[in-house]
Amino acid sequence: KITSLTALEVLDSRGNPTVEADITLEGGATGRALVPAGASTGEKEAVELRDRDPQRYGGLGVQKAVANVQGEISQAILNQELADQADLDHRLIALDGTPNKSRLGANALLAVSMAYARALAAANGKPLYRQLADQASYVLPVPCLNVLNGGRHADNNVDFQEFMIASHNAPTFAESIRMSVETFHALKALLKQKGYYTGVGDEGGFAPNLKSNEEAVELLLEAITKAGYRPGTDISLCLDPASSELWEKGKDGQPGQYRLFKSTQQTFTSAQFNDLWVSWVSQYPIILLEDGMGEDDWAGWQLHTQALGSKIELVGDDIFCTNPAILQAGIDQHIANSVLIKLNQIGTVTETLATVRLAQANGYNQFVSHRSGETEDTFVADLTVATGAGHLKTGSGSRSERIAKFNQLLRIERELGGAGRFAGIKAFKNQ
Ligand code: PGA
Ligand code: ZN
């Protein structure tokens, strides 16, 4: 039984309002959770309820979502006998009543759902990852650090959103994060040496203006070497170009195209854009490519999966939106071989876990993710360990809302001792 449920309008890492929920259970156990927010969001994501009052926070206030938690949601679930997480989440989904959680807000529902998971963990005297999945042993993930930011996450001229390094040749998570952060520092020194800007973007990676998108990859490879590691052997590259943001719909029945909006304005047909990725994958040690094609280009995604789906990991983010029904359609149409997992794309813990299980049952990998607007909440660290997803992306080597997740994983690794194993290269599809 939940005996108390409150919510508060707090701030995320971009200084935008978000929802925090606090739950107390009968017996006194408590749980708190904060909801993150995306910038390059998928069209089919569950709806974040914003006040749209231009007088407050430029319309981004969440007082309505907070009021929904303290009003309608509280009335429906306070002092009710709840069987488990799924019982609560199904009640929240039914109460909202819309397919995309637009009435009460996915931000309202998810804050309650996550806070309940934490309260149950406290009541059971378990760490959160064990509350989400009680197992004899666990896998610690390879962290993929987004050390160079572009696209909608940075005010530079780089078109592609995320250039990540994955330190997979390590015995432990702690060693992997050390290698990654050493490389982050080597990259900073390299940028300085070249006279480039070393300020960071939304996810804590550097955000310099560069001569080309290719130069971003070259800089990462040079930084890996400078830090004393072997590109491709110790540390490989992962990319999220966030191609939905580059897609221009075709007019009058014409096919759409991709455009490098921030740099050259060069355009590509779907087939040409896939060719670009095929050539990058043949030139560089890239083991994971997320959203190589846009969410509205299912035909392009099919072509892309035929070309690269047996070589590297192809992750669907915007195209699947952590939604089990959409993922099922993607599986049926042979699109991608991995799914990005973001709690707030779907809006409850139970549905997130359902998407993970659907992926597992169909041989798709799961890549767990933060959002570009984050908070100090470290739920995704525990979620990654609970699901055994084996890899996650949750920022770079700076900004505490990102580092908080890495620190939580370091604590979990210590706590697990012999019951935890570092995933290594096997975490990546086709490796
Ligand atoms: P977002 O970006 O959180 O701004 O949506 C992350 C991503 O595209 O993976
Ligand atoms: Zn993405």
TrEMBL record:
Residues 2-132 form the Enolase N-terminal domain. It is found in: Cytoplasm; Secreted; Cell surface. Its cofactor is Mg(2+). Binds a second Mg(2+) ion via substrate during catalysis. Mg(2+) is required for catalysis and for stabilizing the dimer. Pfam families: Enolase_C, Enolase_N. One of its GO terms (biological process) is glycolytic process. Its EC number is 4.2.1.11. The active site is at residues 203, 342. It is an enzyme of class 4 (lyase). One of its GO terms (cellular component) is cell surface. GO terms for molecular function: magnesium ion binding; phosphopyruvate hydratase activity. InterPro entries: Enolase (IPR000941), Enolase-like_C_sf (IPR036849), Enolase-like_N (IPR029017), Enolase_C (IPR020810), Enolase_CS (IPR020809), Enolase_N (IPR020811). Residues 137-430 form the Enolase C-terminal TIM barrel domain. Keywords: Cytoplasm, Glycolysis, Lyase, Magnesium, Metal-binding, Pyruvate, Secreted. The keyword Coiled coil does not apply. (2R)-2-phosphoglycerate binds at residues 161, 342, 371-372, 393. Catalyzes the reversible conversion of 2-phosphoglycerate (2-PG) into phosphoenolpyruvate (PEP). It is essential for the degradation of carbohydrates via glycolysis. Belongs to the enolase family. This is Enolase.
